[in-house]
Fold this sequence. Notes:
- By secondary structure, the protein is an alpha+beta fold.
- It has helices at about 85-100, 150-160, 165-180, and strands at about 10-15, 20-30, 35-40, 45-50, 60-65, 70-75, 75-80, 100, 105-110, 120-125, 130, 145-150.
- The protein folds into 2 domains: about 10-40, no CATH class; about 45-180, Nucleoside Triphosphate Pyrophosphohydrolase (Alpha-Beta Complex).
- The longest helix is centred in the C-terminal third of the chain and has 15 residues, at about 165-180.
Amino acid sequence: xxxxxxxxxxHTEQIFNGKVVNLxxxxxxxxxxxxxxxxxxxxxxxxxxxxxxKDNKIVFVEQYRKPLEKSLIEIPAGKLEPxxxxxxxxxxxxxxxxxxxxxxxxxxxxFYTSPGFADELMYIFITKEIEKVKDPLSPDEDEFVEIIxxxxxxxxxxxxxxxxxxxxxxxxxxxxxxxxxx
Length: 182
């Protein structure tokens, strides 16, 4: 018996298996008995970190995003490696992208980034215990970033100007605004 709204997979065709994502097309049986096709991106999941300095600035990275053909200012983030715990990925990405290290992470939330076509689950953490590392982990060889530290008010201004323009970073800023009001 099918659950309400469930789409039962009849057939899966693998289209592409890549380093970051896999693409497949599923033929599905709809709740009304008809069939349809679904283009799906399979992703191992990701993490993002809201790093706060001792002087209460948020550490961001600016990096070029090829799908958008422009640079974005974002909180540090990265893809989960197979079998890796989100906390470990978060600490690694924080150090690789920013040169900061932390021994204290607090889980904020998780969410699906684009559930209409992808299964990517993003975990968000916050840390207020960061310190600059003398010899940080190296970033990925194809990753070029610049560090930007902003106050919460400056970050909100960047959101209004669409200089900060991605979901995870907007979510992080809303979360920090909410904490400030409490």
